[in-house]
Design brief:
Low-confidence stretches: 1-16
Strand order of the largest sheet: 1-2
Number of helices: 26
Distance between the termini: 30 Å
Helix content: over 70%
Order of helices and strands: HHHHHEEHHHHHHHHHHHHHHHHHHHHH
Largest sheet: 2 strands, antiparallel
Strand content: under 5%
Radius of gyration: 24 Å
Number of strands: 2
Shape: globular
Length: about 525
């Protein structure tokens, strides 16, 4: 009998009594209503995403504020002669955030695996607060650079803490929606930034430090889930601390009628031990386990959508939006940025439905193709004379791009980090994926301001052509490798990867879990 065949699946399900959750056949809506406390706990973790969205875009947006320019400007514009920010400084501010985010990956997975997911969460709080304090008292461009470096440490820890934690506590039915909530929080952070900058511009444009003071709000909000949430039950389970794992699970779930803690924990324990067994078959559960063909492939797949975020144009559309609009001649770049951010939020709200209904693979491929076309259209505007009409067209295209992105790469980039990786190696896989994504972030965060600015390349809107080309090329490996993971348990995903099922057949392939559920339903009849 061929390994992984339908016959073997049937035998495995019946002979080895695969533990199946009593809620395996429930719909997403039923699970959210029944396990509302667990769902809200996951939403609390997403608060960190608001800080990430705010901090990741604040420098690229505040550079158009006159008060900020007066404080940190060091050069004169070659065309107008007025005081301006050095484009190299802007590039360094953007790039160093990603440099330190990459550097922290050297220890992020180790601390997450050895000390727990919450250890890294507390480290995020420390780095957030330190970064804000430095910004508030900064006087020179290099002090802002230091603040950005510290902020990058916080941003770099989110993958191995927040995303891993979310993936470990979520039920398969609402895992996609819960992980998409992190994207929503990220977008809300950018909206708050856009609103703050617009309000600052209308009231007191020279008091730019108010934007830095407002970041303390995120610190306060982040402390609430930190103090309430227990350590991940899956982490306790991986350490053999089963009593603590059950206690953590009970606190997250609450008193749910019909929820048998011993049975549901046996499902979690089986997934953990099965994943550990798969890793041990190659002789290790450490870093070298990632070097096997299967785990390396899963690591690459986990990286694909997350890195796609940078390759498709996020540094242009979000990292330097106001700067981009200002250079393109948009009459009110702050208003244009606000409109685009509001569209982004609407798009992410719809993604709560589409990510679990349409599926990850379809949204990634069709969304990537649509963004490719829009990027080329944005680049085409660069060949026209800047007018009010062309400014409106640019804001419209960027808003349309944001809506498509919100329904594709925004949630799926984060989801892929934790869904495609092996549970036993999740923190390590996430660290590698985050490192690769942030390396592209370094590249584009440094080069995009140089592409845009008249001090250097002066491409302006034609930069869209560059990202249109990179998006088109990047779609090829996504088509060949990225599978459909919607609604699958981690045990099912382990099985599908072990069986070598092609990416385009993941959704239709029957697993041991499917057979076990069918058998259970038949027995109940």
């Amino acid at each position: 009998m061929k390994p992984g065949s339908a016959e073997e699946v049937e035998l495995t399900a019946t002979d080895h009594a695969l533990p199946v959750s009593a809620f395996a056949t429930w719909s997403r809506g039923q699970c959210v209503r029944k396990f509302w406390r667990l769902y809200l706990s996951g939403i609390g973790v997403c608060v960190a995403g608001m800080y990430a969205g705010y901090a990741n875009s604040v420098i690229g947006s505040i550079v158009a504020n006159q008060g900020f320019i007066n404080q940190y400007g060091t050069v004169r514009d070659p065309k107008t002669g007025v005081l301006a920010l050095n484009a190299t400084h802007i590039a360094l501010w953007g790039a160093l955030y990603f440099v330190t985010a990459v550097c922290v990956q050297a220890v992020a997975s180790t601390t997450a695996d050895h000390f727990g997911r919450k250890f890294n969460m507390w480290a995020i709080a420390v780095f957030i607060t330190t970064s804000i304090i430095i910004q508030c008292f900064s006087k020179t461009w290099w002090q802002i650079l230091i603040a950005r470096a510290v902020a990058g440490l916080a941003g770099g820890l989110m993958g191995t803490s927040c995303m891993v934690y979310l993936s470990e506590i979520a039920l398969p039915q609402f895992r996609g929606a819960l992980l998409a909530a992190f994207s929503m929080a990220f977008a809300l952070g950018q909206v708050f930034l856009a609103l703050g900058l617009k309000l600052l511009q209308e009231t007191s444009p020279l008091k730019f430090r108010h934007m830095f003071y407002s970041e303390f709000v995120f610190t306060g909000l982040w402390l609430i889930p930190l103090l309430y949430l227990p350590e991940s039950p899956a982490w306790y389970c991986s350490k053999g601390r089963h009593d603590e794992a059950k206690k953590s699970l009970r606190k997250l779930v609450g008193n749910v009628e019909g929820y048998e803690i011993e049975h549901e924990y046996s499902v979690l324990r089986y997934e953990s031990e099965h994943s550990k067994h798969l890793a041990e078959t190659v002789g290790s559960t450490d870093w070298k386990a990632l070097c096997t063909k299967n785990n390396l492939k899963r690591c690459i797949i986990a990286t694909l959508p997350f890195t796609f975020q940078n390759v498709c144009g996020v540094p242009l559309m979000f990292g330097y939006t106001v700067y981009f609009f200002q250079l393109a001649g948009v009459k009110d770049p702050f208003l244009g940025n606000l409109i685009k951010q509001m569209v982004l939020v609407v798009g992410i709200l719809t993604s709560f439905y589409t990510v679990d209904k349409v599926g990850r693979r379809a949204l990634l491929l069709y969304g990537g193709a649509a963004m490719c076309v829009i990027n080329f259209a944005v680049g085409g505007l660069g060949f026209l004379e800047p007018t009010n009409a062309s400014g409106i067209a640019l804001v419209f295209l960027c808003s349309l791009w944001a809506f498509v992105y919100a329904n594709s790469l925004a949630p799926i980039g984060w989801i892929s980090l934790v869904e495609s990786s092996s549970p036993q190696l999740r923190a390590k896989t996430t660290a590698i994926a985050v490192t690769i994504q942030y390396c592209t972030g370094i590249l584009f965060s440094y080069t995009v301001p140089l592409m845009l600015s008249d001090q250097n390349a002066g491409w302006g809107q034609k930069t869209g052509l560059f990202f249109g080309g990179t998006t088109l090329v990047y779609l090829i490996p996504c088509i060949l490798l990225f599978p459909e993971t919607k609604g699958r348990t981690y045990n099912e995903l382990d099985e599908l990867f072990e069986r070598g099922v092609p990416a385009w057949k993941f959704a239709s392939t029957k697993t041991t879990q499917d057979a076990a559920v069918e058998q259970r339903q038949a027995d109940e009849k």
